[in-house]
Write a structure and sequence with these properties.
Length: about 400
């Protein structure tokens, strides 16, 4: 029987494919800049790819042709070496690299059927839970599952930080059984939300006993969870009846400052015909990242729109799920309350108002009860995964 290629072989093949596509994209950018410099016209046509002509055009066409041939060569070489490679199936380092790559380019990887694209699945200890494994986890539980949902560019193994894991600690202290979601954070949040809802429904379908669900979501994971609740309700999924509590950790309910800044820089670059070609580099970032600009959670927030256009917040209001106790933990680097630290810097990625769901538009205000909000000071975004005070708060809320 032919030997199954290792993960390293698959990773190299996927990276090779991605590299070839990147070379071709950069070639397009350089040619566009060359065209602009040598052209007598100073107008900026966004629809024109600015292909050069004559000898220069032939050079660029040859670069693309050679690049494609190199790509074919890499695939052939990897086929020959795949049987010789015998690496471990997974490691935290490999998982971290793949997660970051999917966060930035995950939608592109899926569109090109690149083997580096991460499929959504439940996992424990970094291992996928197939139907039988999931059934056994549920059967061995006391009926209370803590569903852990990671953030952008991350993975389920990264809940382990500085010797602490919220899921493992909840298992030790309160008897919860943690189940970790692993997903491609480069896809639209609404796409992941719909898939997550379907996965949660499989838990209910396969459960041999009554199940209570508790979701703990970090960063983007909170938006994916809200989206799952929205689509679960629309689809009439029964898992929502089993969802008891939903805890958000640093979730950018109303967007992340970093993505808003990236969109602004991109707009500035397009003002000049000389800098415009380089604005395409900013457009490499995934759908998932651009959804973080304002906190998109449903298809209507992005369908039929240019996701790179600087057009302001046009989201559809999506309230917190009915009948579910929702809690929000926010962090700020400031030791004391002030406008700069709370409203601008926040935890370095998300402001306090965004993490707490507060918005001047009453329709977008998420209205967390005051008793269901907690602010950690002198903390950054990643401290939410390991800080003792954060865990103490989660434990108190889930215990009550």
């Amino acid at each position: 029987m032919p030997r199954k290629p290792s993960n390293l072989s698959t990773d190299l093949r996927g990276a090779g494919s991605l590299t070839i596509e990147a070379i071709t994209a950069i070639t397009d950018i350089v040619e566009s800049l060359h065209h602009t410099i040598t052209s007598s016209s100073m107008t900026l046509d966004k629809q024109d790819q600015h292909r050069t002509k004559g000898i220069t055009g032939t050079v660029y066409r040859n670069i693309r042709s050679v690049t494609e041939l190199v790509g074919d060569g890499i695939d052939a070489l990897l086929d020959r070496f795949s049987l010789m490679l015998n690496e471990k199936d997974s490691s935290p380092g490999r998982e971290a690299v793949l997660s970051a790559l999917n966060g930035v380019l995950g939608d592109h990887l899926v569109a090109r059927n690149n083997p580096l694209a991460i499929p959504m699945q439940f996992r424990c200890n970094g291992k996928p839970l197939n139907e039988q494994a999931l059934f056994e986890v549920i059967q061995q539980s006391n009926g209370r599952l803590a569903i852990m949902v990671h953030g952008s560019c991350m993975n389920d193994l990264q809940w382990d930080r500085q010797g602490h894991n919220h899921g493992a600690a909840l298992s030790r202290d309160l008897g919860f059984v943690p189940v970790y979601l692993h997903y491609n954070t480069g896809l639209h949040i609404s796409e992941n939300g719909r898939k997550f809802s379907d996965l949660l429904e499989t838990i209910i379908d396969q459960s041999p006993k009554p199940i209570e669900l508790f979701i703990i979501a970090h960063s983007m994971g909170g938006l994916v969870s809200r989206s799952a609740c929205h689509y679960g309700k629309i689809s009439g999924n029964t898992w929502l009846n089993n969802l008891r509590k939903l805890v958000f950790l640093g979730t950018p309910h109303h967007g992340a400052s970093l993505e808003k800044g990236g969109n602004f820089i991109e707009t500035i670059l397009e003002i000049s015909p000389y800098s415009a070609p380089f604005s395409r580099l900013g457009k490499i970032r995934s759908c998932g990242i651009t959804d973080l600009r304002y906190g998109n959670v449903v298809d209507e927030d992005w369908k039929g729109r240019d996701r790179f256009e600087f057009s302001g917040d046009q989201r559809n209001p999506v309230p917190l799920p009915e009948g579910v106790q929702c809690y929000s933990i926010a962090a700020t680097k400031g030791k004391e309350s002030n406008k700069l630290g709370d409203d601008i810097i926040g935890d370095g990625l998300v402001t306090l108002r965004s993490a707490l769901g507060r918005h001047k538009n009453a329709k977008l205000n998420l209205l967390f009860p005051e008793t269901n909000q907690w602010v950690g000071r002198n903390m950054n975004h990643m401290d939410l995964l390991s800080h003792p005070k954060v865990y103490k708060t989660i434990k108190k809320w889930l215990k009550s």
